[in-house]
Specification:
A 4-stranded antiparallel beta sheet has the order 1-2-3-4. A hairpin with a 2-residue loop joins strand 1 and strand 2 (31-42). The longest helix has 14 residues, at 80-93. It contains 2 helices and 4 strands. It is of the alpha+beta class.
């Protein structure tokens, strides 16, 4: 598992993408990561109009063997920057504990 693989997976545009995804690599306390902001048109009609769903996702690789994805989404577009900042704070606080 690599951050580049998570980047390709999370930042691939889809047929319902409202605009191209924005991706950037980051370093979190738990390890390397990619942050992707993306917006989708939910339930588009024939004209392509529908409800916009914003997402902020982190693909995180604590080590080379596995990765995890933190995904938040919302429809409150007026609050996108604040909600992305909250997601950033969540990503900074992610920890992994050993399984028993």
């Amino acid at each position: 598992m690599t951050v580049d693989l998570l980047h390709r997976y999370l930042a691939t545009p889809t047929s319902i993408s409202f605009r191209p995804p924005e991706a950037e690599h980051r370093t979190l306390p738990i390890g390397p990561a990619v942050r992707v902001r993306h917006a989708y048109v939910q339930e588009p009609d024939r004209d392509g109009t529908g409800t916009i769903l914003e997402t902020c996702a982190y693909g995180i690789c604590p080590d080379e063997k596995w990765g995890l994805v933190l995904l938040t989404s919302w429809r409150a577009l007026a609050h996108t920057d604040a909600l992305c900042a909250l997601t950033d704070g969540l990503a900074e606080s992610v920890t992994v504990t050993g399984g028993g």
